Amino acid sequence: MQDPFDVLSRRATRQKPFRPRCKACRTNRHVIPVVYSREIDEALLAAERAGELRVGGSARGVDAPNWYCRHCGALFQR
Ligand SMILES: [Zn+2]
User: Fold this and answer.
1) Could you report the per-residue pLDDT of 37-54, keeping only the tens digit for each?
2) What is the CA radius of gyration of the chain?
């Protein structure tokens, strides 16, 4: 038998992946992940154009930001 609460929580985590909140906008609605990849391919650029993520470059520094706010342009780590 299936646990209905378990199904609901799984569905919720799939629809709402964790995103930190933008400190300036006080919402995570416009926050997208910054992706660092040595090979930036067409799929990655297409996702960036779609506004799903931001390509941060090929090299990733120790304190490189992980998140980008499309609303105010802020870059932050979490
Ligand atoms: Zn913001």
Assistant:
1) 998 999 999 999 999 999
2) 15
